[in-house]
Design a protein that fits this description.
- It comes from Bacillus spongiae.
- It catalyses: Cleavage of hydrophobic, N-terminal signal or leader sequences from secreted and periplasmic proteins.
- Its EC number is 3.4.21.89.
- This protein has helices spanning about 1-30, 115-120, 130-135, 155-160, and strands spanning about 35, 50-55, 70-75, 80-85, 95, 100, 105, 130, 145, 165, 170-175, 185.
- By secondary structure, the protein is of the alpha+beta class.
- The chain folds into 2 domains: about 1-35; about 40-180, Ribbon (Umud Fragment, subunit A).
- Strands 1, 2, 3, 4, 9, 10, 11 and 12 form an 8-stranded antiparallel β-sheet that branches.
- The protein starts with a helix and ends with a strand.
Length: about 190
């Protein structure tokens, strides 16, 4: 009889430990961090289709996105997109002669240098102004303006408009797969 009670206690202890571990994993997965797969070429050369990243779901509950953060957001068509934050609320955005201007100041985008070089003499990013793509001259409050790094093919704020902060799921900058290309992305 003593062996049976000891066996039941051991089974209960293992079951309880597994339930606690599953609960902790669920909390981490649903509220803190989760994996996301890059789908498509809109963030090339920074990210490649099929790469897996860790998304931080909690960071924007405590702070607003910073310019040039890579974010994940709910896009039209029940999809999540990965893009780079270019404009913050109140910013004036303009692209002219392959140069990004924010509030009249030119900004360098070193993450595009490799691809810009291949476009010799042609603009990698077509000229645009905010007013031309969304009929407002500044990014609205509670929104961000995003662009994909692969500007010629990216579906981003130039076509879908500014992104509501409530649609931002989180930030991402750690590639964990493929294993031979694990890296931190800026």
């Amino acid at each position: 009889m003593g062996k049976l009670v000891k066996k039941k206690n051991e089974v209960w202890e293992w079951t309880r430990a597994l339930l606690i571990a599953a609960g902790i994993a669920a909390i981490i997965r649903f509220f803190l961090f989760s994996p996301i797969v890059v789908d498509g070429s809109s963030m090339v050369p920074t990210l490649q289709s099929g790469e897996r990243m860790i998304m931080n779901k909690i960071s924007y509950h405590f702070k607003e996105p910073d310019r040039f953060d890579i974010i994940v957001f709910h896009a039209p068509g029940n999809k999540d997109y990965i893009k780079r934050v270019i404009g913050l609320p109140g910013d004036e955005i303009k692209y002219q002669n392959d140069v990004l201007y924010i509030n009249g100041e030119a900004y360098e985008e070193p993450y595009l240098d490799e691809y810009k070089a291949m476009f010799e003499g042609n603009n990698y990013t077509e000229d645009f102004t905010l007013e031309g793509v969304m009929s407002e001259n500044t990014v609205p409050e509670g929104h961000v303006f995003v662009l994909g790094d692969n500007r010629p093919v990216s579906q981003d704020s130039r076509t879908i408009g500014p992104i509501k902060m409530e649609d931002v799921v989180g930030s991402t900058n750690i590639v964990f797969w493929p294993f031979n290309d694990v890296r931190y992305v800026k």
